[in-house]
Amino acid sequence: AQTVTQSQPEMSVQEAETVTLSCTYDTSENNYYLFWYKQPPSRQMILVIRQEAYKQQNATENRFSVNFQKAAKSFSLKISDSQLGDTAMYFCAFMALTSGTYKYIFGTGTRLKVLA
Amino acid sequence: EADIYQTPRYLVIGTGKKITLECSQTMGHDKMYWYQQDPGMELHLIHYSYGVNSTEKGDLSSESTVSRIRTEHFPLTLESARPSHTSQYLCASSDQGAGVYEQYFGPGTRLTVT
Q: Do B40 and A91 touch (CB under 8 A)?
């Protein structure tokens, strides 16, 4: 069975600084996708970044980038130049394409607070 | 923002009432999901659908039921609400066949059963 682990329940970072959120997963699948989602307080869950397992290059979206280590089954999110609007719950998620199902496995989330 | 809608956004209802939470998406996605989430906590999959007339129970046992008669519509029904059903309910959709690998989420329905 696939699992996703986020070992940091809460983190804080000063505005304009860089922070890294960790995520590890376990799977025997070879073809899968990994995601980071952001859920601001009382607001809609939105996709931050997506990584295809077959791509070696780490995904980047503006200030957000990932460090994808397939062999280590690690998928961390780096937020550069943190902004107050980055304050949110961040969920790491996994979805395997080859298992015949399309279920997403979510981590327990990391609550990030950006301090002014 | 994604074109996935949930109504009502907030609902306070008494124990024993029957309620239906609505979820609709205009993206033509074939897969839809319902999650239960206590505020600021992890998501629990309670139902999913891979297409019209296809529904399955998720990983978290739930007393709710769902239907999928139309691609765009995936309502969730509680026949008899209880205080233990108090939570936030998130609807999501995806379409891997069309290259949409990520899920799009609705704004959620925050349910309180008194």
A: no
CA atoms of A83 and A62, how far apart (whole Å): 13
pLDDT attached to residue A110: 97
The two structure tokens encoding residue B105: 């989420």
Sorting pLDDT into bands at 50, 70 and 90, what band is B48?
very high
Which of B50, B104, B108 is the closest to A102 by Cβ? Answer: B50
Closest residue, chain A, to B107 (C-alpha): A44
The mean pLDDT of chain A is 94
**Interface contact flag, B101 A50, Cβ < 8 Å:** yes
Question: Is A84 within 8 Å of A116 (Cβ atoms)?
Answer: yes
User: What whole-number distance in Å separates Cα of residue A111 and Cα of residue B39?
Assistant: 12
Q: Which residues of chain A have pLDDT under 70?
A: 98-99
Q: Which B residues, 67 through 86, put their C-beta within 8 Å of a C-beta on chain A?
A: none
Pair type for strands B109-113 and B10-13: parallel
